[in-house]
Design a protein that fits this description.
Elements (H helix, E strand, L loop, with lengths): L5 E2 L2 H10 L3 E3 L3 E4 L7 E7 L2 E5 L2 E6 L3 E3 L1 H6 L6 E4 L3 E7 H8 L4 H7 L4
Antiparallel strand pairs: 1-7, 2-9, 3-8, 4-7, 4-9, 5-6, 5-8
Helix pairs in contact: 3-4
């Protein structure tokens, strides 16, 4: 997941905020475990996401990033787990919506995720 992080523009973030309801995580929560294939694309709006291996933090993701799309599309397990920190806000894009974008059913979302293919 670490190598496939896309930094979103403010315009892309505005588009996604207009289409999806952001989720607020009050407590820490494991979104994706090591060696798991993600089932959503994750956009961090506020707070932090820690990328972990064997419970050790390897990198911290800051707001404005999209992660998990490449692994989701290619059915590839992640090497690092993904833990959202407390008081973070994010958007989760469902696998079906990402697959629809790839099948030309959602050109706006495709433009946002195409760099992760």
């Amino acid at each position: 997941m670490k190598k496939r992080i896309k930094r979103l523009t403010s315009e892309e973030i505005s588009i996604l905020k207009g289409r999806y309801n952001p989720l607020r995580f009050i407590n820490e929560f494991d979104l994706v475990y090591e060696s798991q294939v993600p089932n959503t694309g994750i956009v961090l709006l506020e707070g932090e996401i820690a990328l972990c291996k064997k419970r050790k933090i390897h990198e911290t993701i800051l707001p404005g990033c999209l992660i998990g799309v490449y692994e989701l599309i290619n059915n590839e397990p992640v090497k690092l787990g993904c833990k959202v920190k407390s008081n973070a806000e994010l958007i989760m894009i469902q696998k079906s919506e990402i697959l629809d974008a790839l099948n030309d059913k959602d050109p706006e979302l495709y433009e946002i995720i195409k760099e992760n293919l």
